[in-house]
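#help-structures
NK: newbie question, is this the right format to request a structure? protein is CUB domain-containing protein
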Amino acid sequence: MIVVSEGSTIQLTFQEFKLEYHDACEYDYVRIYNGASRDEGNLIGTFCGSQTPPNLTSSWHVLSVIFHSDKHVGSSGFSATYRKDICGGVLTSLSGVITSPDYPDNYPNNAECHWLIRAAPHSTIRLQFTDFQLESQECNFDYVAVSDGSGQEEEQVRHYCGTTKPPDTTSSSNQLLVVFKSDFNIGGRGFKAYFSSGR
């Protein structure tokens, strides 16, 4: 289990990966979960064989790495490194939390974070802010931008700043992009938001 400070996420990178192959990864495998529980809803992925898994980013500040091997057919195994991301990443779990860097302490200056929340095909994503305190009511300095989809086409982007909580958002597709930017001075506590996906 990997634990970093609350409000941060974890990026896991595999350097070497060689496990026994099975098309359903039933014999030797590595399973990666968001959080400490082995709830299937928190499963990020199951990997086996010799194809190196992609870089993975947690939705929370806890990531569980489970390695299982049976009593037959061994291989050289795997090596991986992790780092604490100040913010951002691709989030694929059924639910999770997004916070500004250092939340609930004031966020740093000159921060830029991009979270791409990606749900299963034909699903939608619900985003709900529970705390929100950014600089000013003018969104020229520090802001959160929420984009329906993975791009930043102007007509699909909503900008939020100040101390008024953004309204709950439900995506029209299986992707939602959240961007946080801060300028060179004057900060605030930042924000905390929950996301969940469903059909």
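mod (FA): yep, format's fine, and the tokens are attached above. The longest strand covers residues 9-18.
NK: thank you!
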